[in-house]
Amino acid sequence: MSNTQSNDFTEWYIQTITKAELMSYSPVRGSIIFRPDGYELWEHIQERFNLYLKSEGIRNAYFPMLIPRNFFMKEADHIEGFAPELPWVTEVGDEKLEEPLALRPTSETMIGSAFSDWINSYRDLPYEINQWANVFRWEKKTLPFMRTSEFLWQEGHTAHADEADARRRTLHVLDEYEKVAEEFLSIPVYKGQKTPSERFAGAMDTYSIEAMMKDGKAVQAGTSHYMGTKFAEAFDITYLTKENQHTHAFTTSWGISTRLLGALIMTHGDDKGLVFPPTVAPTQIVLMPVGPWKKNPAIMEKLTGLYEGFKAAGFRVRLDDSDNSPGYKFNEWELKGACLRIECGPRDLENGHAMVKARDLDDKVAVPFEELAGYVKEQLDSMPKRLLDAARARNKANEHFDIDTLADLKAHIETCKKENRPTGFVLVGWDGTEETEAKIKEETGFTTRNIPFEAPMQKTVDIVSGKPAKYTLWIARAY
Amino acid sequence: MSNTQSNDFTEWYIQTITKAELMSYSPVRGSIIFRPDGYELWEHIQERFNLYLKSEGIRNAYFPMLIPRNFFMKEADHIEGFAPELPWVTEVGDEKLEEPLALRPTSETMIGSAFSDWINSYRDLPYEINQWANVFRWEKKTLPFMRTSEFLWQEGHTAHADEADARRRTLHVLDEYEKVAEEFLSIPVYKGQKTPSERFAGAMDTYSIEAMMKDGKAVQAGTSHYMGTKFAEAFDITYLTKENQHTHAFTTSWGISTRLLGALIMTHGDDKGLVFPPTVAPTQIVLMPVGPWKKNPAIMEKLTGLYEGFKAAGFRVRLDDSDNSPGYKFNEWELKGACLRIECGPRDLENGHAMVKARDLDDKVAVPFEELAGYVKEQLDSMPKRLLDAARARNKANEHFDIDTLADLKAHIETCKKENRPTGFVLVGWDGTEETEAKIKEETGFTTRNIPFEAPMQKTVDIVSGKPAKYTLWIARAY
């Protein structure tokens, strides 16, 4: 790795995901190719989140990607928010279309129009649908996985008879996103509510989980929106109540995307390359012969037996019997984020053990063959929690509570720059004005992340105006 | 159902899939909404085909949907074939793009360009990738599932060191498509080679599986293409041989799409609605109370127990305890294609049995509760073969071998029209000229389906020219 994390984190990131073959740049501005190891991470996230959907009775569907222009016009805040980033299909073959079609940036409009047809009575509610799809937002600055012109996501859309039920779904999904992040991806997150200026275009309330990367910057890792009746009014989603009244439904939407892959890499990766919890790792176990193994066929015989055993047990396992040197193989599989490396050479075989190295631990351990299956299972079972705890500990060290003024914040940034350490998440008081948010951003590049549900402490004074704080906010630089 | 299959098959089809909520029309010309039951069919096909990919070591990836215009220009036949159907993105926000971007109709160009970067040495070959994606072809005439502007598919793309290996993959996938159709979807297919005029734009050889619908029309249900070195030359996919020679790779591509859903419905459906094999059915078992069940809580207790048992055993099962009448429920679940209906009323409970009705059989059977689990499993296990056999028998009755001239064919069509029966598949002799194909199409609307690998007989004379036949062809009207 020519760039380390501490030298230039972004360079480290791009080089690592490129060399590890998670992605390739494509000829289309800001769009990337998800190579097999990269795409597989997303497939595992899909499997995991589909379990939630299934358990909640929320079914998958698929809606057209192209959205007629007049659909966007129906909800004013929505079009205002998305207009600058929308790619438009204006021609087919040689012919101009009568009405341009947008590539969906999100599907509230298309699904709202469908809900209007499908929902008639209180008996149809709640109506809850999910879609796995590609979406398009032509962003000015792009970074693989984190912010790309085309990305993959799930978008859930629900309609409810009353506000309470809609709000319940909004927050229930947010809780599930927290579980996906923490339990499945070992990424600790900060759960809270977005400020009005950071809401989804057209939402009444937006909630998010925010994750802290190793360089201290934030990633908005999932959002859930309560729409009130705004989209129901724009798209005429009404239902007949028990009392025979036509009433607008209350809607929600929520999404996680392939930017979780970026968060995963920037949370766990190190200077050797990728680190993945086994829940999502494309390679959980890699077996390799070491020493003069070609002279001793019993070594490959042993390893092949182990390989078949792990495979039959359902592990994602590879056997690297290439001619590359052990050092080369170590580097390659560390780069690619294999969770466990199992080596066996002539002396190991003689001693009846294999050498096992977990990607996130420093030491190799000699494990007798008869204990290997148990040891591997134990290691893979404990790795997610270990990675989560490590990330949590790092986060804790980069949370700041004693910054009360803009001057404090600037001084903090200066110090961090000098000492080459992350600026992290800063908890500040906020008087609730957009002026404060704008000023913070303008002067420091920090943006408001969210108003935490459980703030570690309450701040009493607005960081800019010095007025009494109405809210306590996390602010940070963000991807 | 106001339209029966024999009255107006297309009307029957559209009404059935609409009422059964498989799809809705969308505001975008020729694009449909895949509603949950429709999308679930596709999810099961994905699961099934992913097993093949996994067993063959072919991994999933994801490539950008937008393709720069210059990419299409590189392979002349390819652009010629797709140009009229391509939607173009020409603007983003308010700005004109320098180069228009096409919505992918297929990804040979994008993936060819990536292969050119990724493939360097004979050690990299074969290089085999699959993508699940949405694709766009702006067709003049559309029909839900069968032919839509946007559809979902998988496209496999592979590169090989030599022709033999590329041809092996092309045909191996075709065999797998046959298995997916016959073993999984209970759709019997005709496997063969496409004539040159029906080849994929840019392919050297195209192979297909063709299915016969209940109305006798054909559906091209899957295709596999051998490209030779044509795309490798256009996109510079070269590798270094063992002997250190730069050489072009041989490529293939192959796909099945959501048109399989159309084939599934038109193969098995009847005047009551959808019929699905349990392999893909969104509802395998539906349980319902009948008679004066509300007065007797033991009935719902029994049914709930059965429901929980089937659910725990992994079946896709519903319990319909709505207030609708039994007649209404029977119709609804027959419309939706539930494989097995299990009824229980007061007398059934007294007699210790449930009444079971398979969607494709005429009679209800009384099955003692203690034998129910075994009976259900047996029915669901045998249903795919039963549906396949029924479809095969119908196909046999609609295959025609005694049509030797265009006049014969026209007479056949007339007779079928008079007797209101399908024109079916007609096996004819072909001299190998495009003139014959054009003439058949012009005069009868029949198109060449494929040159079967195993023709039931060899025809000796071209149906149009009367010259000696070089090939024996299936022709049919087609979707």
UniProtKB/TrEMBL annotation, chains A, B:
**UniProt-listed Enzyme Commission number(s):** 6.1.1.15
| Gene Ontology biological process terms in this record | prolyl-tRNA aminoacylation
Q: Which SUPFAM superfamilies match?
A: C-terminal domain of ProRS, Class II aaRS ABD-related, Class II aaRS and biotin synthetases
Has the keyword Ligase been applied to this entry? yes
Cross-referenced InterPro entries: aa-tRNA-synt_IIb (IPR002314), aa-tRNA-synth_II (IPR006195), aa-tRNA-synth_II/BPL/LPL (IPR045864), Anticodon-bd (IPR004154), Anticodon-bd_dom_sf (IPR036621), Pro-tRNA-ligase_IIa (IPR002316), Pro-tRNA-ligase_IIa_arc-type (IPR004499), Pro-tRNA_ligase_II_C (IPR016061)
Q: What class of enzyme is it?
A: ligase
Per UniProt, subcellular location reads as:
Cytoplasm
Could you name the Gene Ontology cellular component terms for this entry?
Answer: aminoacyl-tRNA synthetase multienzyme complex; cytoplasm
Q: Does the keyword Ribosomal protein apply?
A: no
| Record domain Aminoacyl-transfer RNA synthetases class-II family profile: where | 29-277
Q: Which key words tag this protein in UniProt?
A: Aminoacyl-tRNA synthetase, ATP-binding, Cytoplasm, Ligase, Nucleotide-binding, Protein biosynthesis
Q: Which reaction does it catalyse?
A: tRNA(Pro) + L-proline + ATP = L-prolyl-tRNA(Pro) + AMP + diphosphate
Name the CDD domains on file: ProRS_core_arch_euk
Identify the main location: cytoplasm
Which GO terms of the molecular function aspect are on file?
ATP binding; catalytic activity, acting on a protein; proline-tRNA ligase activity; transferase activity
PANTHER family named among the record's database cross-references: PROLINE--TRNA LIGASE, CHLOROPLASTIC_MITOCHONDRIAL (PTHR43382:SF3), PROLYL-TRNA SYNTHETASE (PTHR43382)
Comment block on domains: Consists of three domains: the N-terminal catalytic domain, the anticodon-binding domain and the C-terminal extension.
Q: Which family does it belong to?
A: Belongs to the class-II aminoacyl-tRNA synthetase family. ProS type 3 subfamily.
Q: Describe the function of this protein.
A: Catalyzes the attachment of proline to tRNA(Pro) in a two-step reaction: proline is first activated by ATP to form Pro-AMP and then transferred to the acceptor end of tRNA(Pro).
Record's subunit section: Homodimer.
Please report the name of this protein according to its UniProt entry. Answer: Proline--tRNA ligase
Q: Which organism is it from?
A: Enterococcus asini ATCC 700915
Quote the gene name from the UniProt entry. Answer: proS
